[in-house]
Prior knowledge:
Elements: H1 5-13, H2 16-24, H3 32-53, H4 63-84, H5 93-98, H6 106-130, H7 137-160, H8 174-190, E1 194-196, H9 200-207, H10 215-238, H11 244-252, H12 263-287, H13 294-317, H14 332-355, E2 373-375
Helix pairs in contact: 1-3, 1-4, 1-6, 3-4, 4-6, 6-7, 6-13, 7-8, 7-12, 7-13, 10-11, 10-12, 10-14, 12-13, 13-14
Amino acid sequence: MRPPVEVSVLIVSLLAPGVLYTINNIPALQEPLPILGLGMFILGFVLLLLRLTVSNQMKVDPLFYVFAEFSFTCMVGLTNALEQDGFISGFMGFYLKKGEPHLSTAYAVMMSYWDGIVHFILFLTIIHRMFRGKSYRSLGLLWAGSSIANQIVHIPGVVIGKYGSNIRPGFWRNVPFFLAPFWAASVLFSRPREMPVVTADKISAEQKKGLLFRPIDLLLSLMLLGAMAFSVFRGFVVLDCPLDTCFTYIYQYEPYLKDPVVFPRVMMLVYLFYAMPLMAFFTHGLRTPGCSWMLDWTIFFAGAMAQSQWCHIGASQHSRTPYTYRVPADKWWPVITLNVLLAALPALLALRCHTNPVYFMKPVPEGQTNKEKKKN
């Protein structure tokens, strides 16, 4: 009798540290081009193993291969994080020298922890639900937002930052991992959303309430406006705005924003040009009834901001960040509080939308009951 698919994926993923340890002890495999070639071969072999684990299944969702393959790389990331923080040794030395040197930075270490713990748990949960016929669309969107946010900071940060002049062939293995989340997100967004059916009268009554009569939505709207202002301000800061306020902030509050690794600068620009407009749309959705797109995009955004803020907060405190770029001790509480709130706000918004989605729904015939399901 075969084990559950998620258990098979777990077993395959746990092979990653052994593979790294083996390569780290074979000098002939530690040159830049062999590292890239061997890396692609290993990923292909893992895909073959995963195909064998589901060979008895009549129909397999193509997204399974994305989630399962990424599960293997999650263990690579966790191995890297543990080695950089001194918990283990003898696994990643060759890859840091000849593959991706930037993986030793504080940002990459925090990114690796997120991959190895949060993403890995998400993948196993999604795969478990997938093969039991349960919905995993929301979990998939949460991962897609997190992964895309990771990649659009990670890859540009390497190219334009201090490691841009030392890009090795191994770096280009990131290309499929950059493209796959976008494809997965497009597939998930295109699939129908399951929602409880609510009578037209109840929907109409809820949607007639103004923002002032929905205190939670009013508070979330005000917090979104504050987050938008904060994102614009920090965007100006990393663009070297000459205002005294910007100068004071980057030198006395968040000097990490000028770290030459450039990851924090890229992140603030992503917030300015992508996160800020999304938050503007969310404020519109909170005051305009029937915006059903809020139910998907708030989950996607919550994943993106949670991953980004984890890496940003963690890296700004990490020992691998030079002391001069860490948050000053006397400014620690206000800076960390603001950044934690920025991470929590999208999660609270997504939670509000999904615990009580009536305001965002479209009217349905009165004859349907709350126990029925409809595709929206």
